[in-house]
Each structure stands twice: as structure tokens, then as C-alpha cells.
Design a protein that fits this description.
This protein is α/β, with parallel strands linked by helices and about 290 residues long. The chain is built from ten helices and seven strands. Among the domains are: about 100 residues, Ribosomal Protein L15, Chain: K, domain 2, CATH 3.100.10; about 30 residues, no CATH class. The protein is about 25% helix and about 10% strand. Strand 6 and strand 7 form a beta hairpin.
């Protein structure tokens, strides 16, 4: 069988590389053609720009200029808008959480917060919090206690099915940075968790969302802020016992009294569908809806 040999240069016989013998490979650099140096250079007189006009000038028009006619970006109508109140949460799926646990990056024997997930490399650029999503719920099999900013119902059901616990907590920008990077703050001067904004209170007062304001710590914070016993009414507004929900309304009752009023109150027609059902069934329309 014939053998193939390659000519490998002996590196010991090659000159030592130094600043005095470094140079580009042949053809790596191409000399620039000189312009305006006579007809023999092929770029003389007008330097290849032709006679007069826009191409002869040294200053080119800006990008998007179409000679004076209405440019394309003005002819096309605008659409959509930017919602300044939108929340941008970093997504975290259950499949990713299972991977971090199986790799040993997360300790399931203690409560898991966004700080532990961030240190484990499970998050990207966290701006306003983390939302737990249910992708991978069918193979998630770990019992964990986790605290995040938001959580989908699929993710909550999958964790509680394994005997775990989910708590959704509100963090503003300052308290979120203190949670993710505690080394930057003095322990004595570390900012504590802030109460949610008025528009976000209903989410964290809802048992369906496992809001932290229903926990012992959340109730204590509400008491300190003068919001003890607050709840969400049927209109989605936060009601504080003894205070009017809207200016001009009577003081709101306690949560127990409010639930009794809902149980005994007569249902009011709110939609065309309910109006049609009432016209068909009469006084028994509430049970038929």
C-alpha cells in the first residue's frame, strides 16, 4: 500500500518572527488609485465623476432623501403605539427550571427566589421582574418553593401538583436591583420591598395568582401603610374598609360584609346575552346563565 507523505517545513530552520520581518501576505494590500492626475491615469480631470450635477459634489444627500418628493417613510401611514405602562418581564419556563435543578445549580431544599435563579444563569436581562411560564409542565417533577414577579396558571398548577408552593411578589426597580445584586448594598441600608402601584394591587391581592399580599408578611406591610383588610371588589378596584373606594361613595365595608352583600344582592343585567336570557326565563334567569 502506497504511503502519502506531506512536506512539513522544519520550523526550527525558519527565521524567528520579530517586528523587523513582519509584513502582509502578497496581495493583501492594494494601492489606492490616484485621481485628478491627468488623462493617462484614467481618473484625470473630472476624476471619474462626470460633468456637473449631484454626482460631482462632495456632499451627498442624507439617507432617505428622494430628490424632493415625499419620502417613503412619510408616505406610509403610522400604525401601533408604544404603551408606556407596559411591563416587560423576563420569561422563565418550567423546562428551564427543571434543567437548572437537574444540573445542581438550584437547591430545592430551600426557597428559590429570583436571586438564586439569576446566580444559576437561568435569566437574561431582568428589567422589571420574572414571569414563570408553563412550557415544560408535563415533565416537571420537582417539589420547590419559588418566588417570582408573575406566574401563569399552568405553571402554578404544575408546581402545586408536585406539592410545591408559588408566591408572586412585587418589586420596583430599586428593590429588584437590591435582590439581584445584594453585594452592592449595605445590609443595614438595603431598601426593603415596596408596595405595588395602585394599578397592580388587584393582581397581588388575588388568591388565584398566589399574591404575596395575602401572606403574613404582605398583611403586615398593608397594615403599616394603613391598608389593613383591603380587598378587590367585583369591579376590580381595591377597597379599604372604612374608606370610600371612589370619591363620593360611602365607606367600603369589610371583606366579610362585602361577601355577604354579594351573596344576598340581586344580580344586575350587564350584557346583551344576559338580557336575552332574562327575557326568555324571567325571574329564574340567574340560574340559567
Amino acid at each position: 500500500m502506497a504511503t502519502i507523505t506531506r512536506k512539513v517545513p522544519d520550523l526550527t530552520k525558519l527565521p524567528r518572527i520579530g517586528l523587523n520581518n513582519l509584513k502582509d501576505l502578497p496581495g493583501a494590500r492594494k494601492a489606492e488609485r490616484r485621481k485628478g492626475r491627468g488623462p493617462g491615469s484614467k481618473r484625470g480631470k473630472t476624476s471619474g465623476r462626470g460633468h456637473k450635477g449631484q454626482g460631482q459634489r462632495s456632499r451627498k444627500p442624507r439617507v432617505g432623501f428622494e430628490g424632493g418628493q415625499t419620502p417613503f417613510y412619510l408616505r406610509v401611514p403610522k400604525h401601533g403605539f408604544y404603551n408606556k405602562n407596559a411591563k416587560h418581564f423576563e420569561p422563565l419556563n418550567l423546562g428551564r427550571l427543571q434543567y437548572l435543578i437537574e444540573r445542581g445549580r438550584l437547591d430545592v431544599s430551600r426557597p428559590i427566589t429570583m436571586y438564586h435563579i439569576n446566580k444559576a444563569g437561568g435569566l437574561g436581562n431582568v428589567k422589571q421582574g420574572v414571569k414563570l411560564l408553563g412550557n415544560g409542565a408535563e415533565w416537571f417533577n420537582c417539589k420547590i418553593d419559588i418566588e417570582v414577579s408573575r406566574a401563569s396558571q399552568t405553571a402554578i398548577e404544575a408546581i402545586e401538583r408536585q406539592g410545591g408552593k408559588v408566591v408572586t411578589a412585587y418589586y420596583n426597580k430599586l428593590s429588584l436591583q437590591a435582590l439581584l445584586h445584594p453585594e452592592k448594598y449595605n445590609e443595614r441600608l438595603k431598601p426593603r420591598k415596596a408596595l405595588p402601584q395602585k394599578s397592580e394591587m388587584p393582581y397581588y391581592l388575588n388568591e388565584k395568582n398566589r399574591g404575596y399580599l395575602l401572606t403574613e408578611e404582605g398583611q403586615r406591610r398593608l397594615s403599616e401603610a394603613g391598608l389593613a383588610g383591603c380587598y378587590v371588589d367585583e369591579n376590580g378596584r381595591v377597597a379599604v374598609p372604612g374608606k370610600p373606594t371612589v370619591e363620593g361613595d360611602p365607606p367600603a365595608p369589610t371583606k366579610e360584609e362585602y361577601l355577604k352583600q354579594l351573596a344576598t344582592a340581586k344580580r344586575v343585567v350587564k350584557t346583551p346575552y344576559e338580557a336575552a336570557v332574562k327575557a326568555k326565563y324571567g325571574d329564574k334567569w340567574e340560574t340559567a346563565v
